[in-house]
Amino acid sequence: MLGFRRPMPVAKYGVLIAVAGLLCVIVLRAVPERKTSRPHPTIVMVLADDLSQSVYDATPGLDTIAASGVRFTTITSTPLCGPTRAAILTGKYPHNSGIQSNKRSNVAVWNARHLGNTVPDWLRAAGYFTIGAGKFVSGIKPRFGIHGFDEWIEVEHDKRTGLTPGGTYWVDELIQRTKAAIRAAPADRPVFVHFSPATPHGPFVPAPRYAGSAATLRLPRGPSFLEEDLSDKEDRVRTRDHVDEAQIATITARWQMQVEQTRSLVDAISAIDEVLVETNREQDRYLLFSSDNGFNAGEHGIPSGKGLPYLESLEVPSFALGPDVAVGTRLKSLIVSHDFAATIAELAGVDTPSIDGVSIAPLLRGARPAWRRRVYVSFHSARRDVPTWEGVRTRSRSAVVWYPSLWTEGYGPNDPYELDSHCKGRPFARCIPTLSSRLDALRSCAGNDCWRVETER
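^ that's the sequence the OP posted. Answer follows.
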């Protein structure tokens, strides 16, 4: 049973920042005064991989948990595993972290820019025992001295079956080893856990107990599903092969397996919460959950994948639970993946170096400070299926320019599914000028200057 289910005093609850969540029921209540029983609380972050809004919506229990906290959407400024994972650990836009792809060259960049200067390093300096488990930053083989954690856990498994040599489903094994690490952590040190399995990333193999459990679910078909008129889109999107009924069946089966995989994340959160209670670390604990990017399932005629400047790739569902969050509310603020680094630091009570992200803790607690009005989004991985692009995004508008074609797209508040671009290839300066005029400043900003450009009127 999850600790969050117990009728405990409010001060014992932690915070959950999530794109997915826990199976629990929490009575709505007024935001209490925060009481801390130790200098640094327990903090857990669970990071999903390729979790889309539609998979989140279909996974049993996730939105039930969100209803007991604060819902919000996180923008992944570069919708790709490596750049977002680096952003979360460094607090920086990909153009400042230097991690803009999933390539092996990320190792040299990481060594040159980030050794000793990431979230786990900051927390270790404050006395935390730091545990990492699963997938690190794409292209980088995690090892001590690079990843910044006191302990990093990986599980070898057969990608075709999802099973370890001992016959255990690999996420279950990762959970058990993470629980063991928490039990073995020094009792006098607070714990930070970064649990980041490559789930529901391909090859789409769920735990045996969940295999087939989503087989009767119908694939959501929103307004952008198999968009017919792609004349406003960039050539690489516009000229994709037409998706036929056989491909729709494949898209559906893949989506169903992602739902089944995601159920293991619910199990992970439950298990970690239970061991925190077991080890007397439940007081004032914080639990965060997000995803490194979304995933396409037929939207705009794109059968699968990520890396595109559309909401299915860029935006991931998120929520927060805790003793001092404004339960039952939904934030509309522009929150970016690299805000998690500043948020974790504030919750832990530690300082950060100069970073681009800003803590969302005040928003979670019900405050409404002046907030960013726009955010920089980009893709520089130079993959064969997705060209380079960059743009500016607000709560209701977006403007994008593709390279090398210089094709432009722009969408406004009356087109939330990005079906009819205002620009259709017009010069970028004329493609929603209020956004395009900010691109140069955003692509070169760093630290506090990013906040200035993001917030100025």
